[in-house]
Design a protein that fits this description.
- About 70% of the residues lie in helices and about 0% in strands.
- By secondary structure, the chain is mainly alpha-helical.
- α3 packs antiparallel against α4.
- The chain is elongated and about 65 Å long.
- It comes from Leucobacter massiliensis.
């Protein structure tokens, strides 16, 4: 087809125009994939979403540890810091493992079980644990669906 007078060439109705990212969008996209352990040809939306949720949860876990310390929930008081630090360490291990294998997602599920268990020590943490667990479940379901849809789309494109 001929180019439109004031725009790019029109493609057929069944073809979608190629998505063009701005330099800042491309940099953000590449950074998110790199953090999630994505390589050039292999990307996982589920892993990217899991990394984001665990990253934010890491901040919350450190704050919960400081809260347990500040409230003097345990004797000795430092035990609250150890609990928060231990859970933060598990999150860091999950994030590191997620870059290489699916085991990071399994560790992420364990993190959420531990996060819900902190509700016994600090009732307000139960609410935060429920919110993050709900977000985690949503991201796992949607991420897997996006990955399946992308794989089907790629298979359809290669099958032309």
């Amino acid at each position: 087809m001929s180019p439109a007078p004031d725009g790019p060439a029109q493609t057929g109705p069944e073809e979608e125009p190629e998505l063009v990212l701005s330099p800042s969008e491309r940099m953000a996209h590449n950074s998110a994939l790199r953090i999630a352990g994505g390589r050039k040809d292999v990307t996982s939306t589920q892993k990217a979403l899991a990394s984001i949720v665990l990253g934010f949860e890491l901040i919350i876990v450190v704050l919960i540890g400081l809260t347990l310390f500040g409230l003097g929930t345990f004797e000795p008081r430092e035990l609250g810091l150890y609990i928060g630090g231990g859970l933060a360490l598990v999150i860091v291990v999950a994030l590191a493992a997620m870059r290489r294998a699916r085991v990071g997602i399994v560790i992420g599920w364990a993190v959420h079980a531990l996060m819900l268990a902190t509700g016994i020590l600090l009732p307000a943490a139960a609410l935060v644990g429920l919110l993050f667990t709900g977000l985690w479940v949503y991201c796992m379901i949607k991420g897997a669906r996006i990955d399946r849809d992308r794989a089907a789309w790629i298979a359809a494109q290669l099958g032309r």
